[in-house]
Amino acid sequence: MLNLYPTDFYYEIKSSYTIIRGKDGIKHLERVLTTKIENIEFGNKHESLLCDLNGRVIDLLTIYIIKNELLIVGNSIKGDEVRRILSTGIPWNEDIIVLNADESIRKVILSGDKINRIFKNIYDSILELKDFDWLESGDNIISTNNRHKITSIEILMPKNEMNIIKKKLIENKFKMINEKEWNKFRIDVGIINHKEIDNRIPFNVGMKELVKMDKGCYPGQEIHARLESRGKLTKTLVRLSCQNFLKEGEYKIDGGGKIIITTAYDGKENKSKFLGIIPIKYVEMDKIVLTNGIEMVIEDVVSFQSLNFHR
CA 197, CA 45: separation in Å to the nearest integer? Predict the structure, then answer.
């Protein structure tokens, strides 16, 4: 476990929840998502982007394939926009219903040494669950994320069971972390958030794995194809550290261009840490120097790792 975190912790992720019912739901998603989804099965978990006609990201979506419906989890402020898009362009002869489940579901992410103890009654070893699968425990949906330095577990639950889950976690010595601690965790392990991708070209923010150019058309596909054919990235997402704390926002770089700090953690007496978007020409350098004289060390490039097994 990385330093500065509780040994065992949990955090409530604010999200939007959309349910699609009807036998043509997957077919409809295939038309609008940036990845292929038509061959996924019950019990699978799939990730994809929803983009606008200019090829910019609207939201990163996680889709859970349930027996008679699809559960789509996205950013909390994008739910209405996502549902509006999904409700548009449905052929008259297709069976599709789009529902708002924002007030019914909650999501918690947890990590720590006691994970197996929490889930021992429902799965021999929760850590052996594949990232692209999920399992059901009562009304809860449980999945793992082994793509980063630290394994984490995600639980989707009915809103009225939130306090029950929290009580069980507290009884097992899990500590709830705040948003500041969560942002530091994200920076350290490389979890890309909506703040990094909102209204941006996927290739510029480490999301290339979720853009599949060998599938049919989707909103923004022409823009993505044009950019890919040029084969030239202009920006990239990186992890940085600095002796000074800088707020999220844009800063000019001495040498040209700018850095967009998307997530910032104030380390106080220790180094502050950041996720930021920089011009690609700086990616091989050890550091960048801002026009105000502040130096920022480039730790590494941050890229999204897809869990989709049927890429």
Answer: 21
Which pTM value belongs to this model?
Answer: 0.92
CATH no. for 9-189 = 3.30.1360.120
Cα separations in angstroms, 250 against 108, 177, 200, 258, 283:
31, 28, 14, 7, 17
pLDDT tens column, 27-86? 999 999 999 998 888 889 999 999 999 999 999 999 999 988 999 999 999 999 999 999
Instruction: Report d(CA 213, CA 166) in Å as an integer.
Output: 42
* Sequence ranges of the chain with CATH classification 2.40.30.160: 194-301
Beta bridge partners of 222: none
Q: Return d(Cα 57, Cα 51) in angstroms, integer.
A: 4
**Tokens at 46, concatenated:** 């799939």
- Name the token pair of 192: 């890309």
Residue intervals of the chain classified under CATH 3.30.1360.120 are: 9-189
Taking each helix axis as running N to C, give the angle between helix 79-86 and helix 25-32, from 0 to 180 degrees, rounded to the nearest 10: 110
User: CATH code for 194-301?
Assistant: 2.40.30.160
Rg, Å, the chain Cα set: 20
Cα separation, 97 vs 79, in Å, equals: 15
